Amino acid sequence: MSSPGTPRDQTVARMTGIYLIVDPEHTNGRDVVGVAGAAFEAGASVIQLRDKLSQKRQIAECSEQIQKLAQEAGRLFIVNDHADIARIIGADGLHVGQGDLGVEDCRLVLEDRQVVGTSNALLSEARESERTGADYLAVGAIFSTSTKANTRPAGLKTLQSVSDSCSSHIVAIGGINASNLESVVAAGADSICVATAITLAEDIGAATAELVGLFEGAYRQRRFP
Questions:
Q1: Which pLDDT does position 155 carry in this prediction?
Q2: Contact present, 103 and 127 (Cβ < 8 Å)
Q3: Which one of 35, 74, 79, 121 is most buried, counting C-beta atoms within 10 A?
Q4: 3-class DSSP state for residue 189?
Q5: What pTM was estimated for this model as a whole?
Q6: Which residues are catalytic?
């Protein structure tokens, strides 16, 4: 975890809220840049582009457009997997899975200001991610999800254990929607990561605004019971 007061630490503090993953496979055919723009306008704190199909040049071009939207909205943009693209387009950060580059290797590519987050399904993975300097810990899958193949279950119990054991910012992910969001915040999540709950909604802005409102209420209740 970055030291208090550093640019990375300040970026992580701005992540609190709704963290949206935009994937061209899950937008009902809508342009990912347009989806990102609507979500930012409705209050999403972070958007991550996850694209497993497009060529790298296309991913870089799309990332650059979303990063520009993030800057204009005063929000954050995270690139999935591609450390080189994150560095080239000046993204706010990078997200990697357990099978991707390690945090320390990512640091060799990224600017010092850029954050690195990791995916974790086990408490032991979260502890190791924190030890190697991850700026935030994504924990999941909290609930079952069809958005991403080969996800591993974590559940609310693991989320609570990570919250109790680690000092890093925690992003909960996996099957979270309006019906269960409050229980996830109560278990220790500082950000709620969603995909299809927003990206498949008929009205992107309305779906985002609903989750933002639910998060703010639940987070306030946890901090000031």
A1: 96
A2: no
A3: 79
A4: coil
A5: 0.96
A6: 50, 119, 148
Pull the structure tokens for residue 148.
């991403």
45 within 8 A of 76, measured Cβ to Cβ: yes
Closest CA to 137 of 151, 118, 122, 153: 118
Domains of the chain and CATH, by start: 7-223 (3.20.20.70)
Provide the CB-side half-sphere exposure for 92 (13 A, CA). 27
For 2, the token pair is 């970055």
User: What tokens were used for 123?
Assistant: 């408490």
Q: Which residue has the tokens 């990375």?
A: 8
Q: How many whole angstroms separate alpha carbon 74 and alpha carbon 199?
A: 21
Amino acid identity, residue 149? A
Tokens found for residue 168: 């890093």
Tens digits of residue pLDDT in 131-145 = 999 999 999 999 987
- Lookup result for tokens 């909205």: 73
